[in-house]
Amino acid sequence: MTDSPTVSSADSDLYRRLIDSVRDYAIIALDASGKIATWNPGAQRLNQYTPNEAIGLDFSSFFAPDDVAAERPELLFIAAARDGRAEDEGWLLRKDRSSYCAHIVLIALRDDAGSFLGFTAVIRDLTERRLADEALQESEQRFRLIVQSIKDYGIFMLDPLGRIISWNAGAERLKGYTAEDIIGRHFSIFYPQEDLDTRKPERELDVASKVGRFEDEGWRLRKDGSRFWANVIITALRNEAGELVGFAKVTRDLTERRAAQIQALADMRRLTEADMANRAKSEFLMAMSHELRTPLNAIGGYAELLSLGLGGGVTDRQREYLARIRKSQQHLMALINDILNFSRIEGGQIKYEATEISVASVIDAVVPMIEPQAEAKRLQVTWQTSDDVIACADRGKFEQIIINLLSNSVKYTDAGGRIDISWAAVGGRAQIRVTDTGIGIPEDKLSAIFEPFVQVGRSLARPAEGTGLGLAISRDLARGMGGDLTAESTFGEGAIFTLTLPGN
User: Does the pTM of the predicted model rise above 0.90?
Assistant: First the structure.
């Protein structure tokens, strides 16, 4: 029988130096009663006690009172004595009573005869790792709660083969499946047959696994078989070793947005066609108007020369005929000017130079222009002479609107009738009213009188002159200056036209 190996003093010194050199672990020898017998620098750094303070203390001194009351140290000793080794993880106390999370390995020490000598305790500080783990768990829990609470997006996980392994409330609302219905099934169940025939689901996972992400828009199926237009993002998930562990899939219902986009494109196409038609119409009207002005100016000029006798003697009857020619020429020129103005307005070629203008001064300047027409029909034209109002407008455009309104009233008011002009400041704006006792406007035509080329009242029994552009031009000019033009009427009892312009 050979003798048991003995430890030389040199070896003992080496072991002591090895233990003393360890700084990140507390390595402690405990006697059979659990009192501290040795104390290395790692134990001092971790627990704050010097060797003189620590040696002789009971190991339970490092445990919180609640753990001592629950016999946590004693249970650890019992397990180590019985099994030779025991492990524990939990909170311990330092000298200043601050706590740290510790991993404890307790090893029973016996001599060669098997007699129990005590314990070796190896303690490691896991506080940072424990806090990081708890923070990670809390973050993961918050993330799970957020994902589960999202209602507008379907968010779920796939395993590497494309089988569904998680399912949120948004996915249930969007696709109609409950978690019990769908978990474990392949995600290709959401694809229409034409996509299955081309193996689109498999291709999407293949792209995502190779490049990390796949995005697509297309038709998807609900549980009831109905289709919806979906935006789909698939993201490959890999572990720290770079191995594919699955996919995250986010689905959003874009059916309404797609329908709106299609409608918007159709509207834009119709609008573009309408703009092109309007532009062509405006260009035609302008070209036609310019072409007509030249011969009409010639007609007027030659009629004037003839009436002056430059071409020879002119009889009274010939002068009457020339006057009729001049009147017709002037009428046609007025119509052409209306068409030109309308074309310029539609083409956005009208410029406005707004200044502060006295409404009374505009009325005083305009009324004399229409008085000859009014007198010819024995119409009485009246307007107020006090309480002037200031409007912020382009004077030329302002006068043109009033001329159009008064001319319109003269045209549609029977002989012996009346036209009244009034104005007031209403809500910081200038309001001018032209009231007549004319034929009025049928209620169902009020909304149409401001449309171009519309003449309410034109009939075989009562022909009306003009192009039907005067009111359309007037309203466009009013709106171009930040105002508006409206009408109200009782058929057979006259009409009221109200021009509103910005005030000062």
Answer: no
